[in-house]
Write a structure and sequence with these properties.
Mean pLDDT of chain A: 80
Largest sheet of chain A: 7 strands, antiparallel
Oligomer: heterodimer
CATH superfamily of chain B: Winged helix-like DNA-binding domain superfamily/Winged helix DNA-binding domain
Strand content of chain B: 5-15%
Number of strands of chain B: 3
CATH topology of chain B: Arc Repressor Mutant, subunit A
Mean pLDDT of chain B: 86
Helix content of chain B: 55-70%
Number of domains of chain B: 1
CATH class of chain B: Mainly Alpha
Strand order of the largest sheet of chain A: 1-7-6-5-4-3-2
Shape of chain B: elongated
Number of helices of chain A: 4
Radius of gyration of chain B: 21 Å
Order of helices and strands of chain B: HHEHHEEH
Structural class of chain A: alpha+beta
Structural class of chain B: alpha+beta
Largest sheet of chain B: 3 strands, antiparallel
Low-confidence stretches of chain A: 113-124
Distance between the termini of chain B: 47 Å
Strand order of the largest sheet of chain B: 1-3-2
Largest interface: A-B, 40 and 36 residues
Helix content of chain A: 25-40%
Number of strands of chain A: 7
Radius of gyration of chain A: 16 Å
CATH architecture of chain B: Orthogonal Bundle
Strand content of chain A: 35-45%
């Protein structure tokens, strides 16, 4: 049994440099990562504005433009998320690899979903709908 | 699921080995398991306690020895959780693709 790992990938019809900008620019991150969220970056820390306060959510640990960005979740440092960009068929292969779920503190794991406006229950409701081919009941859960 | 210690239980490489071992061949005693790894029976028992607390193993008393079997149900829940995270990422990746490709098209 290996460590729990989530790996997802998509091909995008845009140059790798352009995709890279969308991955590192706080304004553009919001557009795809969590619409409606106010991201900011100071040095190697990425923050999210919650109730008028900047809360640090991630530490940048690897920056290799335009190939790879790796972050660790704050404050626990448990979750490691790598964004890999490869040139493919005139566009970009964008892959996300996430590990460290085992060491994520239980309370943190729960609030991680809550922060995104999605509790575990919401995610499950969506999951069930997804599997059954229904319209997602909780689109805000994503 | 939110209060389940399953993630902590599986955080340890030795416990992951024990889960795999029991998945292949259950039940086994702590003595049997200790023979397969370079750690003591006491060490094995500590790991088995954690796995039991997470609902991953079941104990049957057989004479003087306890026999341990895998109970895979929590793993199914874990799989559902992982699937939910994967779906969330799929949504994000699709949003990124749409965001960038629409922009390319309008230029």
């Amino acid at each position: 049994m290996e460590k729990i790992k989530v790996e997802r990938s998509i091909w995008i019809a845009a140059p790798r440099e352009r995709v890279w900008q969308a991955v590192i620019d706080p304004v553009q991150i919001a557009a795809w990562f969590a619409p409606g969220t106010d991201f900011s970056q100071k040095d190697d820390k990425i923050s999210v504005r919650i109730d008028g306060m900047d809360v640090e959510v991630a530490l940048v640990v690897v920056v290799d433009p335009p190939r790879q960005l790796t972050t660790r979740s704050l404050p626990d440092m448990s979750l490691e998320t790598s964004y890999m960009l490869e040139e493919e068929n005139g566009g970009t292969r964008f892959t996300v690899i996430e590990t460290g779920f085992e060491s994520l503190p239980e309370a943190e794991r729960q609030s991680r979903f809550d922060q995104d406006g999605a509790g575990w229950e919401m995610a499950l409701e969506n999951l069930n709908a997804y599997i059954e081919g229904r319209t997602l009941p909780r689109p805000e859960g994503f | 699921m939110s209060d389940s210690p399953i993630f902590a239980a599986l955080a340890d490489p030795m416990r992951r080995k024990l889960v795999l071992n029991l998945a292949e061949n259950s039940p086994k005693t702590a003595t049997q398991l200790a023979e397969e790894y370079p750690i003591t029976r006491q060490g094995i028992l500590k790991h088995l306690d954690v796995l039991e607390a997470a609902g991953l193993v079941m104990i049957q008393q057989k004479g003087r020895e306890k026999r341990y079997s895998l109970t895979p149900e929590p793993l199914t829940e874990l799989e559902a959780w992982i699937k939910a995270i994967s779906i969330k990422w799929d949504e994000r990746l699709l949003r990124l693709k749409t965001f960038l490709e629409n922009e390319e098209a309008s230029e």
